Amino acid sequence: MSSILPFQPDHDMIATGSYDYSHRLAERIGQFIIDADTNSPRSQQRAIGPSEVGEPCERQLSYKILDWPETNTNRDPIAAIIGTGFHLWIGEKFEERNTALGGTRYKIEDRVTVRDSPIETARLSGSADLFDRLLAANLDWKLVGQSSLDKYRRQGPGEKYRIQAHLYGLGQENAGESVTRVVIVFIARYHELRVHVWSEPYDRTIALDALARLDRIRQQVLDLDPESHPERWHQIPTPEKPTCRFCPWLKPGSTDLSAGCPGAQNTNAGASLEALIA
Questions:
Q1: Are residues 19 and 125 part of one domain?
Q2: What DSSP assignment string belongs to the chain?
Q3: Rounded mean pLDDT of 196-213?
């Protein structure tokens, strides 16, 4: 989140007590939103999901594999909440479309198994946003900021989103569907409707390679055992250009990786409640 100047009340508001009332109410509403998001099933998910497998930072994935205590707990939840609301809304609209068509052309928010395994930590499943049987394509909705949409339009979705798309393609294939394409639909959180679609042919090997990488990282964590040897956290690599801002284990200035990762320099941590209600 960018820096936001604190709210500056005028003298009349202070004199009448309106500011005190409004500010306290804003604090309570802000805290309610944060608490509700923290206790949501999405926020409490402990197992790695398809959206995380392609994370380029091996250290972040290692923290996740070990279910390490999070340090960057003041992350602003509003973008994810808006995204959840949109997913619910568009899911209802495609359900209505199915009813109008008198069939099940669209599979909506369907739980798919990307990989099953007798080893619990090796299993991978997730909820696929939309599968269009007529197009034989899996669609994933992404609500993003306007600048991010422009970036994805110019540069493509990046490997993390691309891998997620093919993992869901594999999940649909495992469910018995014929999959020919994977699609990511970027929709800007903006006062004008702006949509960008990225798509490519489904490739099972992209998904399998990503799973093999995840298995390698998991084995690396077991071999290094940073729980017993915290100094070995330094042996788990980070990418050349990490994106640390929203990492749950970001702790700027940290010199002890078992207590949190300092991340890249000049990285802004999550917003505090004071910023959220400013």
A1: no
A2: ----PPP---HHHHHHTHHHHHHHHHHHHHHHHHHHHHTSHHHH--S--HHHHT-S-HHHHHHHHTTPPPS-TT---HHHHHHHHHHHHHHHHHHHHHHHHTS--EEEEEEEEEE--SSGGG-EEEEEEEEETTTTEEEEEEEE-HHHHHHHHHH-SHHHHHHHHHHHHHHHHHTT----EEEEEEEE-SSS--EEEEEEE--HHHHHHHHHHHHHHHHHHHHH-TTT-GGGGGGS---SS---TT-TTB-TT-S-TTT-B--STT---PPPHHHHT-
A3: 98
Pair (88, 182) in one structural domain: yes
| Mean local confidence (pLDDT), 78-91 | 93
If asked whether residues 25 and 82 sit together in one domain, one would say: no
Among 163, 190, 211, identify where a domain stops.
211
Structure confidence at residue 112 (pLDDT): 97
* Domain of residue 30, residue span: 10-39
Residue 251 lies in a domain: no
Residue after which a domain boundary falls, among 188, 211, 234: 211
If asked whether residues 98 and 207 sit together in one domain, one would say yes
The angle at the Cα of 206, spanning 202 to 212, to the nearest 5 degrees, equals: 145
Inter-residue contact 57 to 264 (CB < 8 Å): no
Q: Which of 25-29, 224-228, 234-238 has the lowest mean pLDDT?
A: 25-29
Task: Give pLDDT tens digits for 101-119.
Answer: 999 999 999 999 999 988 8
Task: Give domain status of residue 185, yes or no.
Answer: yes
Residues 6+ apart with CB under 8 A from 157: 165, 184, 186, 198
